[in-house]
Amino acid sequence: MKDILKITLPLVAIFIVAGIIMSVTYQHTYPVRFQAEKKEKEEALKEMAPDATDPIKPAGIWSADNKSYEYYQATASGNSVAYIAETAGKGYSSFIKMLVSLNPDMKIRDVKILDMNETPGLGDQVLEKSFLDQFKGKSLSQIILTKSETKENIQAVSGATYSSRGVINGVKDAVQLLVDKYGAGIKTAVQGVAK
Amino acid sequence: MSNNASLGTLLKNGIFGENPVFRLALSLCPAVAVTSGVKNGFLMGVAVLFVMTMTNVTVSLLRNFINPKVRIPSYVFITATWVTVIDQVMSAYQRAVYKEMGLYIMLIVAFAIILSRAEMFASKNTLLPSFVDGVGMGLGFLLSLMLLGVFREFLGKGSFWGTQVLPAKPLLIMIMPTGGFFAMGLMMGWLNWIDRKFFGGAGASSGGH
Q1: Is the pLDDT of residue B41 over 60?
Q2: Which ipTM did the prediction report?
């Protein structure tokens, strides 16, 4: 009995002290981290629609793959300049989290990857500008992944097909949502081709 | 043990004589996993350097308090505490660095090299040598990872730290996990050859995971 206590007590003491250290650190860093994350999100949204003069506020919540994301309407003195949606697609080893913004004519304005955990050196090449810039100006029906060089569609990064597919799927979902929500005027034309 | 060894020798020991990757052959999985680029290797190395030094210091301070029968859980818990603290502080105050390194920090808890230094060295030595041993081993790990990173990134992507230096990708397989094993084996053999040829050493013989 005495031996057990002799072995256990120091171990328990270490656990308790370590627990206190960790919780104190958490308490002190949580508010700072929360603020920083909030600010980062605002900055990312601002980057998606630099010409929006009014603050970008969430317009609603949508869900894909059992996760919920927000979408936004960016306005400048009351007029819509862009529609933005948070989205994600399953890549090779992670969910690739993105922001997609559309111009009022329902063509893609910009795609920005917020968070991902793809293979360094291979999958993370989807972060490269040359890949993401392909999306600019494309409409829903053009978001198709090909392996050969293309101007009409999107060319996958060689060696990162799964990651490219993840990005494409996420972007497609987001564009579909925004077209459904805001693209009333040109909806039929866009969807007619998409089918 | 090395109580009488001068601190400079201890430092050098971690980098050359008992280099964690090429000599002790410990923590090879992270060494293979993250060295597809120089930058990844560097960031991982820095994170390990931090945690290793902190853990060594703490274990050394508590070495008479920790009961030998439950030393392993104690060491792991100390490592986990430091990893958590560093992760929390960094994610709050160093967002830019955290975005690059956050992925690696949490992995460090399970590194064989940290546990093995706590067991082999810090638990038997006083504060200062343990600190120096932690720094030396951490630097040894950092340099090994960078060496592997330079080699693999150059051959696999034709670049250095993300900057293209060759017009093509000479050997794409080098940045895949397979290439990691090739690079590791070649590098270890090459260093052993240098050691035998020029310094009359015996080369590395042990193996870890």
Answers
A1: yes
A2: 0.72
